[in-house]
Amino acid sequence: MLKDILIFIMMSIISYFTVTLIHELGHVIAGLCNGLKFFMLVIGPLGLMRDENDKIKLYIEKNTLFWGGIAGTTPIENSNISINTISSILIAGPIVQLLSGLIFIFVFLYSSKIFFLLLGAMAVGVSIMCLIPLPRIGGVLTDGTRWLKIRKNKEYGLVETAFFNIAQSYYKYRNCSQINFSDVSNLINNEDPCNQYMGHYFLMHYYKDNGDIENMEEEIKYLENLEEKLPVSFIKIYNYKDA
Predict the structure, then answer these.
(1) Cα 43–46–48 angle (5° rounding)?
(2) pTM attached to this predicted model
(3) Domain of residue 100, residue span
(4) Cβ contacts of residue 157 below 8 Å, gap of 6+?
(5) Count of CA atoms in the C-beta half-sphere (13 A) of 103
(6) Residues 31, 185, 191, CA angle at the centre, nearest 5°?
(7) Cα separations (Å) of 91 from 99, 114, 124, 140, 203?
């Protein structure tokens, strides 16, 4: 009995990381299909990242908040990316995960292997949760919510584009010293407190990386005022006090 329970627990853990990997690979594949190049992939404590020499290396991710899965692709050259490309990358993760889940269930029906049922049920369940346009969960929007916001609201498209551009600048220079002020403004001027916080958060790092301590401290004041409006889990991810 105990052995069966332990086996089931192990299968559940393996299933979770497998379906998470599939989800993140969906984002990566969509990026590659749109002419971008692989940059990073994190599943659990293990990560792959393209370094400053343009080589992909295996590393240990120390930030446990990323262990749930994160992936990214980046333009091959310094070029603008369309909002349609961003939206396709967003939705590809849960779509690929959903399709793989249905395949796993189909395999289970023919093999009767419980592991495939577990994989299928978990993949379908998680993908549906990611596709449903839900409110923020711990300060984070689901892929489906973000995709729908892009399709319905031009202003939110500017928000997603800003996040993408800032991320690319950070990946290229390994700091925020070269981020674009127009991207930061699109975040700060958005009505969502989470986006406002992120705008000031990036601007704080911009001033810090350029040695402007006075303006950095001004941005910290904005962050302190916004902090009480946001979920604790969100602040843990983007904690200005760790800067």
Answers:
(1) 90
(2) 0.84
(3) 2-146
(4) 83, 86, 150
(5) 8
(6) 90
(7) 13, 29, 14, 15, 29
Domain-terminating residue out of 125, 146, 167: 146
Number of domains in the chain: 2
Q: Residue 229 has which token pair?
A: 């409006």
First and final CA of the chain: distance in angstroms? 50
Q: How far apart are CA 80 and CA 126, in angstroms?
A: 32
Give me the torsion for CA of 60, 69, 122, 85, rounded to 10°: -140
158 and 122 co-located in one domain: no
If asked whether residues 140 and 165 sit together in one domain, one would say no
Q: Domain check: are 163 and 201 in the same one?
A: yes
**Residue 159: φ, ψ to 5°:** -65, -50
Q: Are 143 and 127 in contact (CB under 8 A)?
A: no
Tens of pLDDT, residue by residue, the chain (243 residues): 788 889 889 999 999 999 999 999 999 999 999 999 998 999 999 999 888 788 999 999 887 777 888 898 888 776 678 889 999 999 999 999 999 999 999 999 999 899 999 999 999 999 999 999 887 766 678 899 999 989 888 888 899 999 988 887 877 777 899 999 999 999 999 988 999 999 999 999 999 999 999 999 999 999 999 988 888 878 887 888 776
